[in-house]
Amino acid sequence: MNYDYEQTPVSKALFIGLFSGISATLLCLFYHFFFMLETGFPLSIIFNVATIIIASILLFLVVGLFYYWFSALKGGRILFILSFIALTLFCLFKTRGIVRSDNDIINVQFRWLLSGIIIIYGTCSFFLIPFLHKSKTFEENIL
């Protein structure tokens, strides 16, 4: 697209965060749908369509800003990737201790649902955002 103005680094980071958030939202909604279809998980009050959509978009706008701040540093891209891999692994580790119900089966199902969403968010954060930032095709066609 032809614009009369130059894209600033902050706006580029926000657009990449927004696009990654939309991608993560779609992946999480598919995962949530198939997980609920397969398991019949009864406690979906935390992870429903509205919270997934709102949380993904807002979270990835912030992650896009973090990427902008990290990219200003020397070696910031690698530092960003390593930081978000570590954050994803830490969150996955912490899900092991979550107790959502008195029923052990429901607790295990909740941990699997949460772990899948964390993996989707983490992968979109540490892979998709740096990839899109370096992609000339994305910059020319979308931004």
What is the structure about, briefly put?
The protein is an all-alpha fold. The protein has helices at 9-39, 49-71, 76-95, 104-134, 136-141.
Report on this structure.
Helix 1 (9-39) runs antiparallel to helix 4, helix 2 (49-71) crosses helix 4 and helix 3 (76-95) runs antiparallel to helix 4 (104-134). The protein has one domain. The chain is elongated. The chain contains five helices and no strands. It has 143 residues and is mainly alpha-helical. The N and C termini lie close together (7 Å).
Attribute tags:
143 residues; mainly alpha; 5 helices; 0% strand
* Coarse morphology: elongated
Helix- and strand-based class?
Answer: mainly alpha
Ranges where pLDDT stays below 50 over 5 or more residues in a row are none
Round the Cα radius of gyration to an integer and report it.
17 Å
Compute the number of helices: 5
Helical proportion, percent range: over 70%
Sketch the major β-sheet. Answer: none
Q: pLDDT average, as an integer? A: 88
Report the oligomer: single chain
